[in-house]
Specification:
Helix content: 25-40%
CATH class: Alpha Beta
Structural class: alpha+beta
Largest sheet: 7 strands, mixed
Order of helices and strands: EHHHEEEHEHEE
Shape: globular
CATH superfamily: Gcn5-related N-acetyltransferase (GNAT)
Low-confidence stretches: none
Strand content: 25-35%
Number of helices: 5
Number of strands: 7
Distance between the termini: 32 Å
CATH architecture: 3-Layer(aba) Sandwich
Radius of gyration: 15 Å
Length: 168
């Protein structure tokens, strides 16, 4: 797959349908076997096109990776929502569609959003990952992240350990 016509841009409301599809694809691939099945399906169902339409209109940045005219990934980020990782900025989510993983698009997107956060005075950035998501943990370590916190996320009453990474 060629990534020569790849761009990173702010999400628009007309991206809602494709963002919903990318969310569905990436979350099923990343969390099947980690997040309990019924809970995962409920989370995916809540993030349909209407949710993404509203997300594109909110003030929190939402970026997309577009190859040709197809959105193949996204990231949401902004000011840190908590103080545990002692960072000014935070990456809420960053995902690349499974068929486009391994091409460097995640690294490009991560670099772009870190640069955007730094331009806004948030050079120190944090991100949380479920501890059992080995691919995500390896990605963040590969980008220079250091473990800066651990916590428990409860979904459907089931404790899921998570790891926080700090950059900068």
């Amino acid at each position: 797959m060629s990534t020569s016509t790849t761009s990173i841009r702010r999400a628009r409301t007309e991206d809602a349908d494709r963002l919903s599809e990318v969310f569905d694809e990436t979350w099923r691939e990343a969390y099947r076997g980690i997040i309990p099945g019924v809970c995962l399906e409920q989370m995916i169902a809540r993030r349909g096109p209407a949710w993404w339409y509203a997300a594109a209109r909110r003030g929190r940045p939402l970026a997309v990776v577009e190859t040709g005219d197809t959105i193949v990934g996204y990231a949401s980020y902004g000011r840190a929502r908590g103080g545990t990782l002692r960072t000014a900025g935070e990456v809420d989510e960053i995902y690349i569609a499974p068929t486009y993983q391994g091409l460097g698009l995640g690294r490009r997107l991560f670099r772009a959003i870190r640069n955007d956060l730094a331009d806004r005075g948030m050079a120190k950035v944090g991100v949380w990952s479920l501890a059992d998501n080995e691919r995500a943990r390896a990605f963040y370590v590969g980008q220079g992240g250091v473990v800066a916190g651990k916590a428990i996320e409860r979904l459907a009453g089931i404790p899921l350990p998570k790891v926080g990474f700090r950059f900068g």
